[in-house]
Amino acid sequence: MFDWKNKYENEILNSFDTLAKVEAVTSLAIWKRNHSSYSYPVILDNPLENKIDAQGLYHPLIPSSQVVANDYSSIDHRVALVTGSNMAGKSTFLRTVGINAILAYAGAAVAATSFQLPIYKLISYMRIKDNLNESTSTFKAELNRMKFILDTVSVHSDSFFLIDEMLRGTNSVDKYLGSRAIIKKLVRLDGKGMVATHDLQLSSLQEEFPGDIKNYHFDIRVDAGQMLFDYKLKIGECKIFNASLLLKGIGVDIDENME
């Protein structure tokens, strides 16, 4: 036993590294075996020039009986501005892109018919919360996260941001003006990414930055007072609202004639 130890002790750590690699590769193989409909992504070489192209992309954690796949390509823009009704699928779509990108970078099969993308430095702005222990309000936490994103985009040209409903912790006027200013700054920094928002006025930014910003939306269909969601990504700005219907469902009527 001592002879074996003296002979191989210098190789033990290398053996552990080899075992870890085997386990990692085995896990990726099992992942593909358990999700036979998934496809392997194509990783592109140039994050500054190459674009995302996804066909039949969907979230891997949504049951197959409920999931809705979407197509997306960033070939003609750098920032996708996604507007839409409440519960229509905006946030889920951003998470779908993010989680499948992480799977692709890990070498795993992705939940898509096809998916090609360069290796981006992914950064996200989602579910920002206050922190009582640090005496940080929701708005301050949002500002801290947004500063991190702006700083990252300014330094790393290969970054890709996923921003879900920014500046929720302030009033509607400052929220709109601040969101507009942030998106414009991200564009001027040559940033790439996606922004989901309820502020439909922000869709006018496509006219200011043609070729840089492109509008997408998720909408609903109302039938006999019932909201029907198809969870399909569509080109253009959202034209249908549903907050009043949702409020009506809990017994609150909105006076639409009020100025």
TrEMBL record:
Tell me if DNA-binding is a UniProt keyword of this record: yes
Q: Which domain of life is it from?
A: Bacteria
The cellular component terms of Gene Ontology attached to this UniProt record, alphabetical and capped at eight, are:
cytosol
* Gene Ontology molecular function: any one: ATP binding
Looking up Pfam families in the UniProt record yields:
MutS_V
Is DNA-binding set as a keyword in this record?
A: yes
The protein here is known as DNA mismatch repair protein mutS
Q: Which organism is it from?
A: Sphingobacterium multivorum
Q: What is the lineage of its organism?
A: Bacteria, Pseudomonadati, Bacteroidota, Sphingobacteriia, Sphingobacteriales
UniProt lists the gene as mutS_2
